[in-house]
Amino acid sequence: MSHTWNSDRAKAHIEKKMDDVETVNIKKYGRDMSLESIPTNTAYRVDGVHMYADILNLKAMLNETAVEGTDCHKRTLRFLDQHYRAVSRIFKRVDARRVPRPVAADAPRLSLRGARQHNLRSVDLSLPLRRLVGITGVSGSGKSTLIQDVLYPALAKHFGQAAEPPGAFDSLAGVEALKGVVMVDQSPIGKSARSNPVSYVGAWDAIRKLFANLDEAKERGYTPGTFSFNSGTGRCPTCTGSGFEHVEMQFLSDVYLRCPDCDGKRYRPDILALQWRGRSVADVLEMTVSEAIAFFADQKAVLAALAPLADVGLEYLRLGQPVPTLSGGEAQRLKLAGYLAEAAQLAGKKAKKGATGDEPGLLFLFDEPTTGLHFEDVATLLSAFEKLLDAGHSLVVIEHNLDVIAAADWLVDLGPEGGSGGGMIVAEGTPAQLIATPASHTGRALADYAAQLAALQAAPVVAEPPVRYRAVPDPAITIRHARHHNLQNVSLSIPRDRFTVITGLSGSGKSTLAFDIVFGEGQRRYLESLNAYARQFAQPSARPDVDAIFGIPPTVAIEQRVSRGGRKSTVGTLTEIQPFLRLLYVKLGTQYCPDCDVPVTPQSFEAIVAQIMREAAGQSVELLAPLVVNRKGLYTDLAKWARGKGFEQLRVDGDYLPTKKWPRLDRYKEHNIELPVGTLVVGPATEAALRELVQAALEHGKGVLKVNRLDAPGTPLLTLSTLRACPDCGTSFPEPDPRLFSYNAKHGWCPDCYGTGLKIAGRVDNPDDLDLGELDTETDEACPSCHGARLNPVARAVRFRDLGLHELASLAVGKVSGFFAGLQLARREAEIGRDLVAEIRGRLDFLQQVGLGYLALDRAAPTLSGGEAQRIRLAAQLGSNLTGVCYILDEPTIGLHPRDNQLLLDTLEALRGRGNTLLVVEHDEDTIRRADHVIDLGPGAGVRGGRVVAEGRLADLMAAPESATGRCLLAPLQHPLAPRRPVAEDHPALVVEGATLHNLKNVSARVPLGRLTVVTGVSGSGKSTFARDVLHASLAAEAPVGCTRLAGRELIGRLLEVDQTPIGKTPRSCPATYIGFWDAIRKLFADTNEAKIRGWTASRFSFNTGAGRCPVCEGQGQITVEMNFLPDVKLPCEACGGARFNPETLAVRWKGKSVAEVLNMAVEDAVEFFSAHPSIAHPLKLLQDVGLGYLTLGQPSPTLSGGEAQRIKLVSELAKVRGRAGESPSGPGRPLPPEKHTLYVLDEPTVGLHMADVEKLIHVLHRLAAAGHTVLVIEHDLDLMAEADWIIDLGPEGGDGGGEIVAEGPPEAVVQVARSHTGRILGEFLAARRAGG
Predict the structure, then answer these.
(1) Strands 917-921 and 933-938
(2) What is the largest CA-CA distance in the chain?
(3) Nearest C-alpha neighbor of 848 from the set 568, 565, 571, 564
(4) What is the DSSP secondary structure assignment for residue 168, as one 8-state letter?
(5) Secondary structure (DSSP) of 1262-1277
(6) Using CA atoms, how far apart are residues 135 and 142, in angstroms rounded to an integer?
(7) What is the 3-class SS of 1169-1199, one letter each residue?
(8) What is the three-class DSSP state of 525?
(9) What pLDDT is stored for residue 88 in this prediction?
(10) Contact, 884 vs 913, CB < 8 A?
(11) Are 653 and 671 in contact (CB under 8 A)?
(12) Bridge partners for 1280 per DSSP
C-alpha cells in the first residue's frame, strides 16, 4: 500500500483549506504524521472524484486513529464533512432523497383529447393528478405548444381566469378534480422596490399587527395600516415607502439612491421610534429570513408565513429585499413559497374544520423551471415540489434536466423529432418505462446518464494524460491578400496594442488599407450583427476585396472633415461635454425664479407634513395660505370672502387685520396678504390636526402655504408648495428637462437669437437655417436679450454652485476643469453626479492635453481654426476612455504647429498605454519617428503603388531601396531650393491695418506682392482669422472686414482660394475636364477622317452630353444598384463595359486608340502620346511635375484625395501662366500688372502630402511666385516655411494668449526672434538640415 497521495491537486486543495491544521496526531504511528504520509487506496479519473476518495480515506483514518476531542481533530472533521457534501454532489443525483409516488391505473386524471395546435397531431394527453408529471421531448417536439398554448388557456378559460384563446382541441375531462390552474415561470414578480419577500408570502400582515398592538401605537391611534410601506400615513412621503429614490439619467445608467429623508428605512421618524422587543419596523425588514424565524420563534402566525421561504432555500434573503434584485431562480422559488404559504394556511383551516383532505387542489404548470439553477437549487426545487404534492396539488413540468426527469412520477415524451417530425406522444409512463422504449430519445438519455453515474463510482485507477496547450500567437490584425482599389495582393500583420503609422506617397493606398479595409471591415462586422431592419438605416460599407482579416478589434475612425459645424455648435457640443453639463444641471441644479431670484422647489403633500413635523417638532406654528403676492389694491371683496368662510383675520404685510371691520388699504402699494388657517403645537398627538390644516392651507393658497413660527418672532416665513411655482410671484415653471439647456431646441434657446448668441437683424422663418449658415440676418453683435448666453431666461436662472450653465460654459476649459477638480459633492449629489462628473473631467482633461485649455466651452465652431477643430474632434473621441479598441486616425497632425504636435503625440501614446491599438495614416516626420511600427506603401502612387515596400522601425525604412519615405528621411531637403526673392521696404504689398476680428489684437501686417508668403503660428493664434476672415474677406468684399484699413487692393486683379474640396461630385468629373485639355483632345478625334465622314463634331466625343455617350450609364461608366439595408453596389455598365461611350463612337480611333482608351491612359503615358500638341502636353507635363503622373485622364473625381484635388487646381492655374517659365513678364522679381495678377490663398496645402510630394508642391508655388503672382499660404510645414520669401508669425500662444504679430520677415529674420515658437523650431530645423547635409 502506497503512503503517497494519488492526486496532487486534491492534496493541495485540502492543505490550502487547513492552514491552521499543521499536523494530525495518529495513535497508530505514535507520532505526528503530516498529511503527505496519510495513505489512500483509491483514485478516480475525475478531479472532483479524486478529492472525494481522499476525503473518505482521511475521514475513516481520523475516526479510527486520531486523538478524539482535540481542536485539531474537530476542525479537521468539520472541514472534511463540508467538502464531503460538496464533492459528493459531483456524481450523486439530486433526486436521491425523493421517493417516487406510484400511479395507479384508476388514479384520477386530467384528459385533453385531440390537441392539434401548430405541429401537434391530434394528441391525447392523460395526466395523473396529485403527482409530479414531466413533459419531455427533443426541442421543437411540441411540449410548450401542448402545455402553454392548449392546456393552460383551456383550463384558465374553464376557471374564469384571463388568458389567450386556447389552441385547437376536441375535449377536456377531469377538470372537476381541480380548483384552479397556475402557470409558474421565472418572470419578475414586481417592478417596484416596495415589493419584497415578506409581503409576498403574507408575513408582513402578521408583523404589522404586532407593532400596531404596542401601547404607544394604540395611544397615537395607529393601526396596522400605519405600518404599511405601500400605503397609509406611516411611510416616508419622499420615497413613498420604497426606501430609494430612482433618478433617471437618460444616456447614463439610472441611479438608485437611498431616500435622503428616511435613509432607506421607508418610514417616518415617529413610526421608527416605536420598537417591538427592541427592534423597529425598519430593523425587522433588514433581517434575513433565518434571523426573522429565530426572532419571531414564539409567533405562530409569522412563523407559518416565513417557513416556506426557508423551505425553498431562500433563508438568506432579507425580508425587505426588493424583488427586482432577485434572480430568475429566486423569483420562481419565491412564487413557490407563496403557494406553499397558502397551502399551509389552507391546511390549518382544514384541520380546524376536520376536513378529510379530499378537496380539489391546484394544477401547477412549470416551463423548464431548472433553467439557470445550480444543481443544489434543483434539489431544493424538488423538495418544494414535494411539499406542494403533500398539500394535494398536481404538478406538470416541461423539462430537459435529466435529474428532474428521473425524479418524476410520470413522464410524457413527445417526438420523435422536432418540427414537422414531432407532435406525437412517443412514450408515457414511469422513467423506467421510458428507458425501455427504444423510440424514445429521452429514454436513451436516461439510460446513458444512469450508466455514466455507475461508471464514475466504479472506475479503476487511470493516470491523467498530460495537458497540451496550443501556442498563443502574437496579438495582431492579420490581413491576407488585399486587392482593394490599387492594393496589389497585400498581406501583412499590424501589431495590436501598438502605435502603427501607415505612410507612403500620396495615392499609394494608405487610406484604402486603414479605412476601407481595417475600419470598414470592423464596422461592417458590427453592423452585420444588427437585424435587417436596423441595417437599412445604417448603410453598411461594402465588403472590401480581401481574402481574410483576422484579429480585428472594435474600430473607431477619426477622419478628416472640412466642416467645422454650424453657429450653434460649440466646443462643448463638439466634445460632448455640453450634454453631460445639461444633465448635471437638470439633476443637481436649483431652479430660481428669473424675476424674483428665489429658489423654486416642489413637494408632495406628505413631504410637506413630514418637513413640518421634522423641523418644527414641539413648536407652536401658524399655517398661512397666501392669497395676494405683491399686488396693488384695496381687497375689500377678499376680506368679505374670508369673513364668509369663517375667518376673522387676514395677515396683510405682516400685520393681522380684522375681516369684519376691514380697514382701507393703500391702493398704490404692493401688498402681500395671507389667510391664517390655524395654529397648533407640532407633535405626534397633533398630526391628524396638522394634516387637516395643511390640506386647507394648500387648497386656499392654490398649492402654496407658509409656516409662521410663533415661538420665534421675526423668523422668515417658511414657504412650501406642491407646485413648481415661485413662492413670491406665483409664476409656474415646467419640470426641468435637458432640452431646457439646448441651443438647438425651442425649449431652451433665447427667443430673440434662436440659440446663436448673435443679434438677428431680419425676420427668421426657419430658425434651423441659422445653424446651417443659410441666412444672412445675423450679425457679429451679441444678442441684446441674452448677451450671448444663447439660452432663455428660465434656463439661465437654473444654478449649480451659484453658477448658471451659460456662466460655466463661458469659462475657458482650464478654468472649468479647475471648477470640477475642486467640486465637493454631498452624499446624494455624489451618487447622482458620480458618472457625470467623471465624464466631464475626462473630456476636459483631454482638451487640455491636446493644448486647448484656452478655449471657452461656448466658443462657436465657425470661429475655430482648422487645427483647433481637428483636435476637438480628436479629444471628443479619445474622451470616451475606451480600451481594447483600434483607433484609426487620418493625419491627426493636420493644422498643428510643430510645438503642439508634440502634445498630440504624447496624448496618443497615453492612449496606447491604456491597451488600445493606434493605426495612424500620416506623413509627419515626428509622428513617424515616434511610432512603434511603420508600414510604408509604394513605391509609387496609383497603379504604381499598392505594395508594402518597407515595414518595421525607422532604420528598416531607410534601408529599403524602394521606400520613398526612407529616402526622404535619409536625404532630406536642403533649403533654400531656389534663391530667396528679396522684399525691399518699398516693395508693393497688401497692407492690413487694425485687424481686431476674433482674438486679433489690433494687428497690422503686410503681404508682399509677387512673393511666396507663409502665415504661421501656434494653433489658435489667429492665422486663419488673419488670412481668410480678414485679408481674403476684405479683398472679396472690396471693403475692410475685421480691420480698419486694407491698402493695395487695386494691385490685385483676381482672387482665388485653392482648397482641398473635391473638383466634382460625379464620376463624369475628371482631371481632363477640370483642367480643360479634354476639349483639345475631343477636337483631335473630331478631325479624324472617319468622324468627318459621319459629320461628327467635338461634342460627339463628350461623355457629359450629346449622342456619343452610352445611353445606359449616361457617360459615367458605371451604374449604382440601391440595396436598401445592404450597401449600394456600383457595377461597370453592362452596355459599354465602363467605356462611357456607345460602340459607334468607340469605333473612331486617333493614333490607334479610341476615346475610351485615351481616358484610361495614365498622365505619364499621355505626356509622350500628345507630345506634338503643346496645348495638351503642357498641362499634362504640369500634372507630372506636381506628382500626379499616376492618375488617369478620366479618373472620377470622387476617388481623388484632398491633396490630389488641390494639386489639380494648382495645375489648372499654372496652365494659364504665359511667358518665360519662372520669370514675371514685368521683369525679374516684379509682380504682374493688376489685370494679370492673381492672389492665391492656400490653407495648409501640405495636408495629405508625402514628404516627396511636398517638394513638388514647393516647386509649383515657386513657379507661381516667379511668374509674378502672389501666393499666400497658411502652413505649419517646416519645409514650406523654409522656402518662404516672407513669414508672418502670429502668437505667442493660442486663444486669448495670441492674436499678435510675433515675427515678420524672411526666415533668416524670424529665427532671430526669441519669443517666436516658430522661429525657435525653424532655427533648430534648419540647423539640423545643414548638419545632415
Answers:
(1) unpaired
(2) 128
(3) 571
(4) P
(5) HHHHHTT-EEEEE---
(6) 10
(7) HCCCCHHHHHHHHHHHHCCCCCCECCCCHHH
(8) helix
(9) 45
(10) no
(11) yes
(12) none
CB 839 within 8 A of CB 846: no
CA–CA gap between residue 1236 and residue 1269 (Å, rounded): 8
Amino acid letter, 683: G
Q: Is the CB of residue 311 less than 8 Å from the CB of residue 340?
A: yes
In the numeric block, which cell numbers belong to residue 374? 445550480
pLDDT along the chain (1333 residues), means of 10: 36 42 31 36 33 47 49 54 46 61 91 94 94 94 93 93 91 92 78 82 91 91 89 82 75 73 86 92 92 92 89 87 82 82 68 62 88 78 85 91 92 93 94 92 91 71 63 84 92 95 89 91 83 69 87 83 67 88 90 88 82 89 89 88 91 92 87 92 89 90 88 84 75 77 85 85 68 52 88 92 92 90 86 87 85 85 72 74 86 81 84 91 91 94 88 93 92 90 93 92 95 91 90 92 93 86 82 93 95 93 90 88 65 88 94 94 93 93 86 87 80 72 53 89 84 88 91 93 96 87 96 94 92 72
Left (φ > 0), alpha (ψ -120 to 50) or beta: where does 569 sit? beta
Separation between Cα atoms, residue 605 and residue 607, nearest integer Å: 5
Nearest-CA neighbor of 571 among 197, 873, 779? Answer: 873
Q: Which helix (H) or strand (E) covers residue 203, if one does?
A: helix 203-212
Exposure string of 678-706, with b = 16+ CB inside 10 Å and e = fewer, is bebbbebeebeebbebbebbbebbebbbb
1175-1211: string of b/e by CB count within 10 Å (b at 16+)? ebbebbbbbbbbbbbbbbbbbbbeebbbbbbbbbbbb
Query: What's the 3-state SS for 25-89?
Result: EECCCCEEECHHHCCCCCCCCCHHHHHHHHHHHHHHHHHHHECCCCHHHHHHHHHHHHHHHHHHC
pLDDT of residue 39: 37
- Measured CA to CA, the distance from residue 652 to residue 1237 in angstroms comes to 83
| Cβ(861)–Cβ(565) below 8 Å | yes
Cβ neighbours for 1171, distance < 8 A, ≥ 6 positions apart: 1177
d(CA 1141, CA 1136): 6
> Could you tell me the CA-to-CA distances from 160 to 163, 178, 710 in Å, in that order?
9, 13, 62
Q: Which helix (H) or strand (E) holds 111?
A: strand 109-115
Query: Cα 1287 to chain center, whole Å?
Result: 45
Joined together, the cell numbers standing for residue 72 give 485539531
Q: Please tell me the distance from the alpha carbon of residue 188 to that of residue 482, in angstroms, as a whole number.
A: 51
Question: Per-residue b/e over 425-447, b at no fewer than 16 CB within 10 Å?
Answer: bbbbbebeebbebeebbbbebbb
1292 preceded by a cis bond (ω within 30 of 0): yes
Q: Which three cell numbers stand for residue 173?
A: 375531462
| Ordered alpha helix ranges (H), 354-440 | 375-390, 402-407, 431-435
Which cell is 397 given?
413540468
Q: Could you give phi then psi for residue 1005, rounded to 5 degrees?
A: -155, 160
Residue 330 one-letter amino acid? E
Q: Distance (Å, rounded) from C-alpha 1227 to C-alpha 976?
A: 22
278 exposure class (CB count in 10 Å sphere: 0-12, 13-18, 19+): exposed
Q: What is the pLDDT of residue 433?
A: 93
3-state helix, strand, coil in the chain (%, to 5): 40, 20, 40
For the entire predicted model, the pTM comes to: 0.67
Query: What is the model's pLDDT at position 75?
Result: 54
Burial of 1248 (0-12, 13-18, 19+ CB in 10 A): buried
Which grid cell sits at 108? 384520477
CA distance 420 to 481: 45
Report the half-sphere exposure of 1235 (CA within 13 A, side-chain side).
0
Instruction: Please list the alpha-helical segments (H only) found in 801-952.
Output: 805-809, 813-821, 827-849, 866-878, 898-913, 925-930
